[in-house]
Amino acid sequence: MNPHRTDLRHTARQRCKGTALLTVLFTLILALCTGFAVRPAHAEEPDTTTNTDQAAKPGVSITVNSMTPVITPSSGYKLNLTVMNNTDADVDHGSIDALTNFTYNFISRTDLQEWAEGRGQIPLPDLLVTLHVPRIAAHKSVTVNSSLPASEQILKQFNSWGPRPLALDYRSDDGAQTSTLHSFVTRSQDGLQGERTPQLHMTMLMPLTAGDWSLDETTLKALRADRSAKTHASAIAALDSKSTEALRAKDQLMQRFPHVQTLADPQVLATLQTPHTQALMQPADFDITRYSYAGNANGYVNAGVPLSSWASSNSVQTLRTVLNDGTAERPVYAMQGVGAWNTEALDTARMQGYDTVIATHDFDDQDDTAAHTGVYRVPTAHGDVTVMATHPMLSQLAAGQATSQQAQAETNTAGRLQRFIAQSAFYQMEQPYQNRCLLVSFGPDSSAANVSTFMGALQEASWLDLTDLETLRASEPYMSGDDAAAVADTTTVDPAVYDTATLNTTLTTLAHTRRDLQHFNTSVLLADGSMPGDSAAQAGDANNTKPGNGDANDTGDANDNATSDDSGDALGALQWSNRWLQAHDELALLSLNANTARSSALTVATQAMVDYLRQGIGLTNPTNVNVVSESASLPVTVTNSLPYPISLRISSRTDSMEIVTSRFVDVNVPPDSEAPATLEIRVSTSGTTVANQELVNHEGVPLSGIHTTTITSSLQISDKSGIVFIIIAVLLGIVGLWRQFHRKKDPDE
């Protein structure tokens, strides 16, 4: 604890009862004694990298639960704190003094950061309020609060606007425990005399996106069993109820805070079925920066993610579908992924129809020392791109992160809000007549409560003018042309964040599962929806009928060459099969989402889709077969629970050269039906072997697991063999008789 501040506690209380003259003298003396060091007016923004060598937890710690973020003539001052006893012994009664300095002005951003980290040496002669703390049991906490009405005289001592230092100073009555927490208190311009300088423009962005998509089992079952067009492939991915409600709560904030700018992922928009958005981002929050860095366009196409799937026009089309309005429009901005918005990535975005992108990290003029408009016009091969860069520190606070590990008050929303308000006020005072517009972004995982808390406080910030995204985009760019391009290309991130090895594995897996679906559609499903020959399946069908050759790469409506049934909303076989590809590609696109931490789970889900489709066909076989002759039959049954006919093969192998089965048997099976088939068994000796049967398509690709049948041969003489032996015996008998009657007798007989 600062010993200088400990001495001030008693003085601060006496000052509240003293005269104004004594106050002035006392403040001057303190200022001389502490020896203020004058810092440069525009110190460089502090490094916000967290320090892993955090100080040990104190015996007693203070947490701000809530605090009046902006003091106005009518706000009063409310304070709610939690005091935690981290020791093994009870802590005596104590008190917390809320100390400030009504006349102190922060002179640099370093000044603010040092204060937030508990390193600043600022005299605090002014006592706002004292909170009495009861006895605290070991490893327990208590909550204390205070509320000063707006008429309280001490609040009128804030006779100039701006951020002020605040220290919450705890001391137990026995002096055994002390603790101090540094924060800020900010007075608005309302109710104060003097000229008002122009407001600082600020745009508050709330991304509406998600990363916890998963395979929807209900939709998956409907895809296989249902011929109706009412089942949409886009529904294959779903969010759980908790995530959906969290997104819906954020979406509804627009009705309370019209200045919050919602940037919606079209996939989320389709899930919520809501029009509450000012702008759209790329479909599925696709990571454009990673795509550009990977340089593997064919890999993405083979995985089911062609350029058209994440073009800006696709976002608008989704909006029109959700609103059922073919003319609906919203601006579309590309959100930054894990990588950098260098000129190559910006050109890729521009090629896809995005003339404006939002940079959420690693895009700023690091040599600049003052907050400035974060708008850049960067030339690319496909045209200029407007980059709207978020302010790093303010966005960090809004997204729920402390500016440093040492800033102990910023461990929760209330503390971060106090810092945000103070920091924004300082930025306005730093260049009061400079026309600037800052972009601040909440994190994709920010809760509705966090956004609501910040937006409610910002409405009281008289020095801020909350604007929309289009106003920001129309602002005078901070840089343009070659200068802006240089900033883009000097802004780099660690190549490790791209994780190209994992990306290539994901793309390979997706390409494999998509190819499996294509093989099923072209080699198993009868694309014209009709059975060859008779309507019933023919056992051991030797005509080797193969499915139609519909283009399985077409993931559109597939209306051409498709046969629908009599129902108006029923799909033809080709449409039905292409819907599976559309569902696969939906999962593939989401697995490449910049905000998806579970991309591997979605990739695995595509394999689950293929497996479930294949499970729609099955093979039933006997467990054991006994053979007592040279030939026999092995009866099997192929089932088809799909709504369309299929054509496939039964493959059979044995592990014996003396006991064998038919190698392949072709089978056609009607929809929702079954068909018998027969495998011939040939034996040449007695013994036992195992026959392995599986379903394959006409290209030999397995469609099912291995089914086994044990064949036991007890070979006996067959009819033909017996006849041969009898004939030989008869011939031998005839020869014997002939010889008996025609041989010459010996004279001695």
UniProtKB/TrEMBL annotation:
Region (Disordered): 531-569
Presence of the UniProt keyword Coiled coil in the record: no
Keyword Zinc: no
Domain of life: Bacteria
Keyword annotations from UniProtKB, A to Z: Membrane, Signal, Transmembrane, Transmembrane helix
Transmembrane segments: 721-738
Skewed-composition ranges (Low complexity): 548-565
Signal peptide boundaries: 1-43
Protein name: Secreted protein
Origin organism lineage: Bacteria, Bacillati, Actinomycetota, Actinomycetes, Bifidobacteriales
